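#help-structures
NK: newbie question, is this the right format to request a structure? protein is DUF6421 family protein
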Amino acid sequence: MSARPAALGTQSIIGEPEVVEDARLVAESPAWLGLKAAVSSLQTLQAKDGSVPEPGDHDRAASLVDDVVREVAALTPAFPHDREYLDAVRADFAAWAAGGFGVPDFLSSLVAFHPEKHRVDGARHLVVFPMYTQNGSTNRHVEAVLVEVIWPSFIAELEAGDYSNALFVPIRFLDFTSGYDTNSAVLFPESVATSTIPAYTWGAIFADREAARFRRVVREAAAVTRLELPADAQRLLDDQQLAERTFVMWDLIHDRTHMRGDLPFDPFMIKQRMPYFLYSLEELRCDLTAFREAVRIERGLLAAGELEGGELSMADESLREHAKLVQYAVLFDRIFRFAITGSRVRNYDGLGGQLLFAWLHQRGVLHWTDTKLTIDWPEVADAVTALGDAIDELYWRSIDRPKTAHWLAAYELITSTLTPNPASVWAEGPKALPLDGPPRGLTDAVLDDEFPLSMFYEALDKKMRAVIESTAGITGAAA
């Protein structure tokens, strides 16, 4: 047991170990491989709520927990900034075993974990919790993940300035257990099994997975639709690290937008029960805010460069470049991947992608003619911004509206562009809806597929389904 941390430690001679040490040394170390194997075996004994319900499995579970505790201890020297958290993890595992393997409570270790306090490019974290993985496993099983922070200098400057977001932690995968061999691209504290709900101080997003699946899907979609890409958009598809940095910028602005603006509701809408198309508009609002801010940054820097004789500093040029790329990322991810990913059951991200495509098509900015997709690039920024402005106007007006009136107005905004399901009660108008009862009746009246795919998207879905499915579990290393 003592040999493993020493072997890891010999690789970090100077500087911060998480920066200097090769990440693969940890991911390939016997301690990590042992931890991963123990966690994987433990998962097979756990029920959906994370407990080990069968008394006959308790001896085996206790042995596996001993393995987990031992390997975490062996790995701890490689993560000195997480020592308090990793000590608490070991204590929580011991307490879970001593308590008879009921529903796990990892409150102490969750409260001790603060990746938001160590946002250094290349910094690594070992994350071990009983948790579900959003867009992945719904079981609250023990998972182990090795991650690395992505924090380039231009993002640090943005976050320190107009785009402050103290909770935001962009990361990439180094390795993971089965719960993340899925579509999940987030690591959120609310997914961890705890007895009470603490104040959440961070939220992590796997920018490498976002970038990798974007590159694979958009590359194929551009080929299928015969879309000719601008040179800078093509570079985004060719360069994984460039795409990762671009997604970090997008996510930084998107994430903070949920709590900013003229909001007629609790920004954490997941706590409320409402028609799924309202979630569509909220997620799209945040993405289009990121798009609009990227346009503002790009145009501002271009204007500044003209005033200074056409020259920008290296830092400003890097920011301008990424601001332009964010616009491509939002546009292509929304219309190519979001629109046709997932089931047709209350697919709010899919609806947002459909809405953006149709909005641009109906305004003559995007064309599907002779089985070829073309885009009038000089017109894109203003047209996309106009949709964001329309959603912002809806929100601002709804501060003075009753809840049901806001819902109806939101539906009207969407149906001004998209055609609803012909079987929809909502499509018949307010007189057909149960407006005299509680709002729940209105939510129940929304069809699972209230806005079916258009004929364009039905055809695209058939051609793209295999490549979209192939992105489950993808990482930047496999892109």
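mod (FA): yep, format's fine, and the tokens are attached above. The chain has two domains: 3-201, 210-471.
NK: thank you!
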